[in-house]
Each structure stands twice: as C-alpha cells, then as structure tokens.
Amino acid sequence: MSHQPSWIAHVDLTSLDRTKESTASITTLAHTASRLNTACVCVYSERIVEAKSAGPSIAVATVVNFPDGSDSQSAVVAETVKAVESGATEIDVVWNYKAYKDGDVDAAVAPVEWVAQAVKDKSNVQIKVILESGAIEPSTLRKACDLVLAHFDDAQRVYYLKTSTGKNGFEGATIESATTILEA
After folding, report:
1. Nearest to residue 34, comparing CAs of 66, 4, 65, 62?
2. Are the C-beta atoms of 71 and 53 separated by less than 8 Å?
3. CA–CA separation, 27 and 50 (whole Å)
4. N or C terminus of the chain: which is more exposed, having fewer CB within 10 Å?
5. For 10-50, how does the pLDDT look when each residue is reduced to its tens digit (9 = 90+)?
6. CA 83 – CA 2 distance, rounded (Å)
7. Are 20 and 45 within 8 A, CB to CB?
C-alpha cells in the first residue's frame, strides 16, 4: 500500500467545465476523491447529486456567484439553498472583487454574507471565499484577505480563502498569491 502525502487531505478535486462533464466523469472524480481521501470534490450545482451518489462518504462543494462575482442577492441565495438541499457541504463563493477594486468594501463582502445567512442553520456547511487574486493588485491582496477574515470571524463558516476561479481571463493561482493567502 502506498503512503499518501498529508497534504492530499486538503485538496479539492474539481470539475468546472460543463463542456467536458458527464455522469461518467463526475463518477470517476468522486471515486478518485474517495480513494485518495481528498478534502472534497467541487462540481457545479447540477452535478452535486451525481457526485454524492458516486461517493457517498466524500464532501461535495459547489460554486456560487461564479465566476464573476456579480450575481444578485436572490440568485446567490437561491443557488446556495438549492446546493445545500442537493447535498453540498461546502459552498465556494466568489466575492465581489470588482467592488473591492472600486473601493466598495460592503459590496465586496456582500455575497459572502448572503451565503452565510442562507446556511446559518446548517452547521455542517462551510464556506470558502474565492478572491480572484489575479484581478487584485498584488500590493492589496493581503488587505483583501484580512478584510474577509476580519469580517467573518466564525472560522467554522468562512474557513478557507481560495485564489481564483480560473475563468475570468486573469492570471490564476500563483506562488505569490497563494503565499499571501496562506500568510493571512
């Protein structure tokens, strides 16, 4: 039996490409996550039930306010509620990075607040915040991290910051952005 590196338990296996997804690919993803004991699988909300069926013991995450961080409150809340009802135990929400860049802190964190409110009675649901680090000046990325972490002091809810969606044409995760987030 091979030894698994300890960091594998912190990895999300992700499938967020609707043009390449199928029931078979989601099943394979879930089986791989189960075999490797990864943190979770992350899929679009319409694939949650398939992922849970294929790997009932794995955690399933989904994305909301994705990918550009500018959905309406009603859309974010409805998508969050539907995802949790379908079996998601982690919600990866894109904060409004455009508002942050424009200096509107309240609007920047609003999508995270909407998700937190939508899952407030679901103690098993955790929230990850996608910062879209490639859209944020490197000199202000740490400030963005600190803002999110200070605004949401319940580490059981907002417990993870993520670099990017990989969907908006910005540079995705870099060593520099990941290091900044880790040091926050």
Report:
1. 4
2. no
3. 7
4. N
5. 889 999 999 999 999 999 999 999 999 999 999 999 999 99
6. 35
7. no
Which pTM does this prediction carry? 0.91
Q: Is 74 exposed, middle or buried (0-12, 13-18, 19+ CB in 10 A)?
A: exposed
Residue owning tokens 């955790």: 126
Measure the CA–CA gap between 80 and 15, rounded to whole angstroms: 18
What is the C-alpha separation between 178 and 36, in angstroms, rounded? Answer: 23
Domains and CATH numbers, the chain: 1-57 (no CATH), 59-183 (3.20.20.70)
- Judged by DSSP in three states, 48 sits in helix
Give the tokens for residue 26.
């989601």
Residue 71 contacts residue 99 (beta carbons within 8 Å):
no
54: Cα within 13 Å, side-chain hemisphere: 23
Q: Which residue has the tokens 């939508």?
A: 118
Q: What is the side-by-side order of every strand in the sheet holding 12-15?
A: 12-15, 40-43, 60-64, 90-94, 126-130, 158-162
